[in-house]
Write a structure and sequence with these properties.
Length: about 625
């Protein structure tokens, strides 16, 4: 018996079951017993490996099919009624034709499998910004992960009542099990051309077929909380962003709430859980991937984390780089595509300097330091409830969210971009966000290390025309007026000629956060330059650091020639947005070019750098 009388929901589940032909239907209640049954079932089927109960209690390892290791941007579609509304940065397909195609591929797709109905809320149930989704899936891995990652189960269904609104999220692995056939340990569609991650923003609804991995399959995350939500947010006057949320407290016990948008695998989880190297500072985490931002009754900008867990990059996570994450994943964690140790624990590159002997790699093969491929896949991840994080902020699931005093943007830039740069104003901050460039990472299938424009770290996640999105940011600034948070651009990834990082990063990033709080407090620690407000000489606290000789110049100076090339790259990118690019952004690029051409772009007098609103 379905645990609801919601007629539209019952009709939809019935329609999908008729289409997909599962052998059973299970309505998830989100209970501990249900989670235990799901994981135990996967262990007995070989989909999960139970880790050693003493070393890693309540934890499991999943190994995916080698074709199913990350998001798939080429097969991600925004099916708005008009192609122009999806814009040049998204794949578009006609919604009517796409729905017909999808009904074709989903037909019989769940044969021999259980159809799980997963009610979930993005944002705490009862929050002003919460949205309820129902995911249908034939993957028990997705059902178990959704319990860790979202506010999932009976309370979400109860909040829906008998006629509430929900966003239908349809998912199948696309691997039916006809009678007599054997299951694989990671069923999916191996041909990337036959996978679909499809959004119908006008409904709104989501259909995903053929992949069981991360953002392709946990449909509350990128699909709902970013692509669909960004479009809803534009229509409703709020913002859905690819941002961490953190609470910073100074030695003087002043509180600052910051958000930061960095592209995938560029350090959001690290910054969100940062262990400050400077005494007296603390960081508490409110979220590591997505922020929903709305204007409160007092006119300020508030941030809510729509998620309830972390799906974090494992490689590189260590007691040195992220001690809080290491404690978070000490138990009750699902690991995906990491290496297995001889004693039933997990390992990945960077966890320890020396790999333990007797490792089994992410594909189940014996691995030794001489092996040609890494032991863990570079996009291997951990899935864990936020409640397990020792530095989770006590307000992390507050219904109203926290008031934001600064927004950071950043990317992976070995050259040109300085360590930190404050925008002259909100408008100039939108220019900095819009022109974000970053090298591609393993979070998406394709070549890594390629520099591309990733405006606001939202290139793969903006559910409508990127030009309109930039316009929405400008409009939000006008509504916020004097309450607009300060905007900063940071770059932890600057390298020297030998390819070594110039900035120590991780816990030392608190030094940059300290300078940011001084800007917020109106201390005169910044110098106006052609590109923005840079730390004045001596203003950045580098006490006790031994930075290489060239570091000071490269980290906080201006590479004029590099910036002139940057201006051209920005203009090239802006041109791709056509006539939906807000004209103000194009003129700001031209103004930047003029300031760089002035006699001294490093000083305040440079060609009339705009001062004023939001300046230092
Ligand atoms: P998604 O979950 O994919 O959205 O990404 P994320 O931004 O949360 O990624 P995460 O924090 O897991 O990024 C991990 C990568 O960033 C690893 O390669 C880290 O080594 C690197 N990283 C994080 N912080 C720093 C830093 O301060 N300096 C340097 N050099 N690397 C860093
Ligand atoms: C990202 O790629 O930005 C992620 C991981 O956060 S996934 O959920 O797979 O999209
Ligand atoms: Mn992300």
């Amino acid at each position: 018996m379905p645990p609801t009388t919601h007629a539209r929901l019952l009709r939809w589940v019935d329609d999908m079951a008729t289409l997909c032909q599962p052998s059973a239907i299970h309505w998830c209640d989100g209970s501990e017993e249900e989670y235990r049954a799901l994981t135990a079932g996967m262990v007995s089927q070989g989909m999960l490996i139970a880790l050693d109960e003493r070393k890693r209690p309540g934890s499991f390892l999943a190994r995916t099919h080698p074709s199913d290791v990350a998001r798939l941007e080429e097969r991600t579609f925004i099916c708005s009624a008009n192609a122009e509304d999806a814009g040049p940065t998204n794949n578009w397909a006609d919604p009517v034709q796409m729905k017909a195609t999808l009904r074709g591929v989903f037909a019989g797709a769940m044969q021999g499998r259980t159809l799980y109905v997963i009610p979930f809320s993005m944002a705490p149930i009862g929050s002003v910004v919460a949205k309820i989704g129902i995911e249908i899936t034939d993957s028990p891995y997705v059902a178990a992960s959704m319990r860790l990652m979202t506010h999932m189960g009976r309370p979400a269904l109860e909040a829906l009542g008998t006629d509430g609104d929900f966003i239908p999220c349809m998912h199948s692995l696309g691997a039916p099990l006809p009678p007599g056939s054997r299951d694989s340990s990671w069923p999916c569609v191996s041909d990337p051309g036959k996978k679909y991650i499809v959004h119908f923003p006008d409904d709104p609804s989501i259909w995903s077929f053929g992949s069981g991995y991360g953002g392709n399959a946990l449909l509350g995350k990128k699909c709902l909380a970013l692509r669909i939500a960004s479009r809803l947010a534009r229509d409703e006057g709020w913002m859905a962003e690819h941002m961490l949320i953190l609470h910073l407290t100074s030695p003087a016990k002043r509180d600052y709430y910051l958000t930061a948008a960095f592209p995938s695998a560029c350090g959001k989880t690290n910054l969100a859980m940062l262990e400050p190297s400077l005494p007296g500072w603390t960081v508490r985490c409110l979220g590591d991937d997505i922020a929903w931002l709305h204007i409160g009754d007092d006119g300020r900008l508030y941030a809510v984390n729509p998620e309830a867990g972390f799906f974090g990059v494992a490689p590189g996570t260590s007691p040195r780089s992220n001690p809080a994450a290491i404690s978070t994943i000490a138990r009750d964690t699902i690991f995906t595509n990491v290496a297995l140790t001889a004693d039933g624990d997990v390992w990945w590159e960077g966890l320890t300097e020396q790999p333990p002997a007797g490792l089994i790699d992410w594909q189940g093969r014996p691995w030794s330091p001489g092996s040609p491929t890494p032991a863990a896949h570079p996009n291997a991840r951990f899935t864990v409830s936020a409640a397990r994080c020792p530095v989770i902020d006590r307000q992390w699931d507050d219904h109203a969210g926290v008031p934001i005093s600064a927004i950071l943007f950043g990317g992976r830039r070995p050259g040109v971009i300085p360590l930190v740069n404050q925008a002259f104003s909100w408008e100039h901050g939108v220019f900095l966000g819009a022109t974000t460039g970053s090298e591609t990472t393993s979070a998406t299938i394709g070549k890594t290390g390629v520099l591309r424009r990733d405006p606001f770290a939202m290139l793969p996640f903006c559910g409508y025309h990127m030009g309109d999105y930039l316009g929405h940011w400008l409009e939000m600034g006008e509504r916020l007026g004097r309450h607009a948070p300060r905007i900063f651009f940071v770059n932890w990834f600057r390298k020297n000629a030998d390819g070594r990082y110039l900035w120590p990063g991780f816990g030392e990033n608190v030094r940059v956060l300290k300078w940011i709080t001084e800007c917020i407090d109106g201390r005169s620690v910044a110098t106006s330059t052609a590109i923005g407000l840079l730390p004045s000489p001596g203003a950045l606290d580098v006490s006790g650091l031994s930075l290489p000789e060239e570091a000071g110049r490269d980290l906080t100076g201006i590479d004029v020639a590099g910036w002139k090339r940057e201006v051209t790259l920005i203009a090239d990118f802006f041109r791709t947005l056509g006539n939906r690019l807000p004209p103000r952004l194009a003129s700001m690029d031209e103004e930047l070019r003029q300031r760089l051409d002035a006699p001294n772009p490093r000083s305040a007098q440079a060609g009339g750098a705009p001062g004023g609103a939001g300046g230092g």
